[in-house]
Amino acid sequence: MKMAKKLVIIDTDCGIDDAQALMMALAAPNIQILGVTCVFGNTCVQNVCQNVLRVLSVCEREGIPVFRGCAGPLVGASSPPTDHFGTDGLGDVIKDRDPQWEEKSQREHAVDAMIRLVSENQKQVSLVALGPLTNLAVAVKLDPCFPKKLKDLYIMGGNMEGKGNLTLNAEFNFAMDPESAYIVLEEFLCPTYLASWEYACRNKLTWEFFEELINQDAPAARFMKTITSKCWAYSKEAMVSKRDVYFGSGFVSYDAYAMAACIDGAVVTESIQCPVRVELQGLMSRGMLTLDRTNALKKSHSVFVLTKCDTAKFSRLLLESLRQPSMKPKVEC
Ligand SMILES: [Ca+2]
Q1: Where are the domains of the chain?
Q2: How far apart are CA 28 and CA 216, in angstroms?
Q3: pTM for this model (two decimals)
Q4: Considering the domain 6-321 in this protein, what is its CATH number?
């Protein structure tokens, strides 16, 4: 009997690690992507749409709908964009931008699409959130039953040890829109799995593995090699980053950790189940995730904060993700 596929919506601010995560989902035989919803973050939302369309084109999967979503956080102005993955999110190496990207994107807003797709497939859709959580926060305000209709939610974001990569104490995705992160972790009562910054960094891979990964003989691997070629975040020789100071040198593809948990739950070997809350005040800690392991907040809802990853399984998913597009079986005549 053919196994039913997991239905997935991917919400992304498509930087290089999002591209990697998206390719992982495209390569997974048990995953059906209903749509990709775009949000600002690594770059502006217009670039994000173009980046997603580019990844789908490299993998020859242009049939998957791409929706444009929120262009800034719920409160206040957007933080100035960082150049972590280049100003365009994909390493500033792509010269031929697609002038037809707007026609290739759907007209429906990402938040409307999310609500519609989940309402049409209640309790069957996994939502994988790889950027600031603005689209998700707006979705629950438009449709308070939205989280109840989800099967589960996987988030790359937040931190569990108070270590920050954007600010002293806050991780990038949460720090870019703390109010949205707060709303999502208070109001999404579906099973929720958090791949924090420290989870990704503590389960880093070697630079030797990175070389093996991008030097595979396939269009997706060649694309990944190109977009990482001038990006300091993918250079082991680059100046020592905060990540290296805290966790030692290594290759970390952040968003791929959340995606891998959705594709194969066995990739996660340990997690902490506890209530969490996002700090909204604080000169240094705005956007920080706090773990309430003593139930001081008296919340009824707990999330799974991932702590240990089967890096052998995870590495295999990464390797497979760059062997795309898959060769179509030849028809014998
Ligand atoms: Ca991302």
Answers
A1: 6-321
A2: 18
A3: 0.95
A4: 3.90.245.10
Whole-number Å distance, alpha carbon 130 to ligand 1 midpoint, is: 4
- 131 CA distance to ligand 1 middle (Å): 4
Indicate whether 272 pLDDT > 80.
Answer: yes
Active site residue ranges:
13
- Reference 176, options 15, 302, 10; nearest CA is 15
Helix (H) or strand (E) holding 54: helix 45-58
DSSP conformational letter for 60: T
Amino acid at 261: A
Tell me what the mean pLDDT of segment 245-265 comes to. 94
pLDDT at 1 over 60: no
How does residue 328 score in pLDDT terms, banded at 50, 70 and 90? Answer: low
Query: What's the Cα-to-Cα distance from 268 to each of 71, 248, 259, 261, 305, rounded to whole Å?
Result: 32, 22, 11, 6, 10
Split at pLDDT 50, 70, 90, the class of 224 is very high
